[in-house]
Amino acid sequence: MAKPTLVITRRLYDQVRASLASVFDIIADNQATDQPWDAATMQRHVAQADYLFCTVADKIDAAVIAAAPRLKLIATGAVGYNNIDVAACKARGILITNTPDVLTQTTADFGFALMMTTARRISESERYARAGQWAGWAFDQFTGRDLHHATLGIIGMGRIGGAIARRAMGFDMRVLYHNRNRSQEAVEATWVEKEQLLRESDFVMLVVPYSPATHHLIGAAELALMKPTATLINIARGGVVDDQALIAALKDKRIAAAGLDVFENEPKFDPTFLQFENVVITPHIASSSKATRGAMMQLAADNLLAHAAGLPLKTPVA
Asked: Which residue in 64, 120, 254, 301 is a FRET match for 314, CA 20 to 30 A apart?
């Protein structure tokens, strides 16, 4: 009996790929180059696919779905699936799975690290030292902002937001949060309206999924509410922040700093961000520990293997 065909869009750990190769006929995987395909290449590859293993960087739109008449399931190796046309999948009866939970603690670690790096000007001072500019000690050298006893505002109190809030407790931070609904994840955090959170927070951390409802959730009006001493941290998705509005706010010093792991149009983000010493830039790596990225791959693989075996999906989303 012929194996079902699986298209894998990006490079996987060897052990994960081996577990899939035992069940699927893998074609068009991207082990060598590990670069995203353009639309035409994606459509050509999925034409034979029974299953698709993609990442958040792959655009799986209606045209891709239409080009894959045999497709049964899309497993994305990420929590977010805004890159997939869910309506087109539903219309065709194509299932979608994602990888929640396995990256919660790692992403929370990174969000806190990005906030600390931005507050204490670590990237800026490292560049200074590496450039050979350090001539001696001074009281006012790279003075930053304390986290301890500062106010952290978290927009999006899901599992990751709750994990960040618990870390903030260890720094004696006051934690505010805003969700559409009050969250059980909010340990010793106070729900407030978004406007109050923006006005009172020293650090604003974004941890919301991307959707039409959260597109440009933080724009010019929201940035205008923030303190001029405040910092914006985005570990959510590009598009949650209006990047042009943020650039304008940074130019006019309406906020003090930003820590950004995600951008609109990434990886080709606006190069203006590179002009700001007070912006810490990372390339969408909040979940990137070796163990966690492996767990993300394996959970996506487990969903594919379960469906091929006629078993319930581990983490279905549609």
From this structure: 64
